Amino acid sequence: MRVMGVDPGLTRCGLSVIEGGSGRQVTALDVDVVRTPSDAPLQTRLLRISDTVEHWMDTHRPDVIAIERVFANQNANTAMGTAQAGGVIALAAARRGIDVHFHTPSEVKAAVTGNGRADKAQVTTMITKILALQQKPTPADAADALALAICHCWRAPMIARMAEAEAEAKAAQAKRTYTARLKAARA
């Protein structure tokens, strides 16, 4: 499975692509950070992010996009910009028929470090070890994008099982409803 991890942001937007193998084996294919000047108009910044992300999607052909979920407890302006960047990325993925999954920072930290409250240094250290990188990815947005991709790759089997169980439950409920209607119509 090829996963594109995205740490959305207007000033710095981390992008990564990893390839998942059997078990927990993952390989980094690419990582970078899109930067936009804070004094540029919003639409120009979003266009730069969109153009870069679309190029990455066309070049790397990911199976799924993993984006960090925005939390409202951040600075309101930061949260708004992060959400806007994430929306642009999700839209680009939807246009290509690529599934998008959002993961909270604590889910990502727990997946790669075992601790949902790990700090950025711990996450970066673990990413470096997991991917057997020669040096730590910088800036933190690059490491976070890699962590998001790894988190999704490792959580994907569980997500698929949960979706399958939900679909089976809905089908069973639909069957019960249909059966009840048939009995009511016969009575």
Automatic annotation (TrEMBL):
GO cellular component, one term: Holliday junction resolvase complex
Binding sites annotated in the UniProt record for Mg(2+) 1: 7, 141
UniProt xrefs under PROSITE patterns: RUVC (PS01321)
Gene Ontology BP terms: DNA recombination; DNA repair
Primary location recorded for the protein, binned into one broad class: cytoplasm
Alphabetical list of CDD domains matching this protein: RuvC
Enzyme Commission number: 3.1.21.10
Catalyzed reactions: Endonucleolytic cleavage at a junction such as a reciprocal single-stranded crossover between two homologous DNA duplexes (Holliday junction)
CC cofactor: Mg(2+)
Complex and partners: Homodimer which binds Holliday junction (HJ) DNA. The HJ becomes 2-fold symmetrical on binding to RuvC with unstacked arms; it has a different conformation from HJ DNA in complex with RuvA. In the full resolvosome a probable DNA-RuvA(4)-RuvB(12)-RuvC(2) complex forms which resolves the HJ.
Enzyme class: hydrolase
Entries under Pfam families matching the protein: RuvC
Catalytic residue positions: 7, 68, 141
Protein name: Crossover junction endodeoxyribonuclease RuvC
Stated role: The RuvA-RuvB-RuvC complex processes Holliday junction (HJ) DNA during genetic recombination and DNA repair. Endonuclease that resolves HJ intermediates. Cleaves cruciform DNA by making single-stranded nicks across the HJ at symmetrical positions within the homologous arms, yielding a 5'-phosphate and a 3'-hydroxyl group; requires a central core of homology in the junction. The consensus cleavage sequence is 5'-(A/T)TT(C/G)-3'. Cleavage occurs on the 3'-side of the TT dinucleotide at the point of strand exchange.
Positions that bind Mg(2+) 2: 68
Family designation: Belongs to the RuvC family.
Alphabetical list of InterPro entries matching this protein: RNaseH-like_sf (IPR012337), RNaseH_sf (IPR036397), X-over_junc_endoDNase_Mg_BS (IPR020563), X-over_junc_endoDNase_RuvC (IPR002176)
Record keywords, A-Z: Cytoplasm, DNA damage, DNA recombination, DNA repair, DNA-binding, Endonuclease, Hydrolase, Magnesium, Metal-binding, Nuclease
Cofactor note: Binds 2 Mg(2+) ion per subunit.
Subcellular location: Cytoplasm
Gene Ontology MF annotations: crossover junction DNA endonuclease activity; DNA binding; magnesium ion binding
Keyword Membrane tagged: no
